[in-house]
Amino acid sequence: MAETEYDLKDGQVKNFLLHLDAERNASRHTIDSYRMDICGFAAMILKRNLYECTADWNAVTVGDARDYVVFLQSEGIARTSMNRKLSAMRSFFRYLERESKVKSNPFQDLTSPKKQKLLPKYMTVEEVGRLLDAPGSYWMEMVRKGSAKTPEGAAFSEARDRALLEVIYSGGLRISEAVGLNFQDLDLNGGVMKIRGKGKKERLAALGGPAVKALKKYLALRSGFSGDGTACAAVFINHTGGRLTARSFQRNFKEYLAEAGLPPDMTPHKLRHSFATHLLDAGADLRSVQALLGHENLSTTQIYTHISAERMKQIYNQAHPRA
Predict the structure, then answer these.
(1) Residue range 265-286: average pLDDT?
(2) Bigger pLDDT: 282 or 169?
(3) Please, which pLDDT band fits residue 229 given cuts at 50, 70 and 90?
(4) Which of 48, 89, 197, 228 has fewest C-beta within 10 Å?
């Protein structure tokens, strides 16, 4: 990250962001989140715009920190988001304290709201199958109605999005990991791919037979949409030859949900949840699923065992004569 990339007047915040990038190897998404959270605190509590002026961080008190919690609660901020914001402020002041810029960390002993334990939503195997088939029927209908610009463009979009969905479900990927794939990350013969996950950590993920087949079909059409011939390292590209973005794909994803008759609140991330749940349902051990998902802590993966247990209870109650 270039030193001037974030045009902040406040040098302490800018130095902290540089520290996250250079010393903690944080992802761009993490750095952006920290920047927004710190600037949000400054705007709401200190009445300071860090893009136009600086803040006296040494003057921030425990009372200011508590006022921030009250403000977040009054705004109806979800507990997970609130905890993230407080964690960002705690880390920022810990850095300032270590650099001798402040005398104490006002957020250090502040109790974070307890996280609400929600089981992640997932799709059944049958629902995943319908979703994977949806790009084909959707783009066929677009061509029939004359809504697609060209049949060739529709065929490209159908093949690309089917391949992307197959890759996400096959490897349990986040959408950002999938659209971030480069050609050098794929081993179609070996059925594996190299993934760069959170914190720029790398792991290997599986490419099942259907995913490899879908990728080969897509790659056969890809060269016709690679722009001016300039080599693009991205596996998944848009119609102008640039890397496909997660946001762009998510617009199509909503259409595929409707085509498959699935709830509109489903997201590409639910395919990752489904991947984990289906593996555990089929007898995979928790440590293996943890490695495939790229979870640092086993406790993060264990939530999927609760999903499987709930499903087991549901099946038991439906099927057992004396349930």
Answers:
(1) 88
(2) 169
(3) very low
(4) 228
Q: Whole-prediction pTM value?
A: 0.61
SS (H, E, C) the chain: CCCCCCCCCCHHHHHHHHHHHHCCCCCHHHHHHHHHHHHHHHHHHHCCCCCCCCCCHHHCCHHHHHHHHHHHHHCCCCHHHHHHHHHHHHHHHHHHHHCCCCCCCCCCCCCCCCCCCCCCCCCCHHHHHHHHHHHHHHHHHHHHHCCCCCHHHHHHHHHHHHHHHHHHHHHCCCHHHHHCCEHHHEECCCCEEEEECHHHCEEEEECCHHHHHHHHHHHHHHHHHCCCCCCCCECCECCCCCECCHHHHHHHHHHHHHHHCCCCCCCHHHHHHHHHHHHHHCCCCHHHHHHHHCCCCHHHHHHHHHHHHHHHHHHHHHHCCCC
Mean pLDDT over residues 116-123, rounded? 70
Distance (Å, rounded) from C-alpha 218 to C-alpha 261? 25
Please check the confidence at residue 166 and state whether its pLDDT lies above 90. yes
Q: Are 107 and 89 in contact (CB under 8 A)?
A: yes
Q: Which residues are catalytic?
A: 174, 198, 269, 272, 295, 304
Mean model confidence pLDDT for the chain: 87
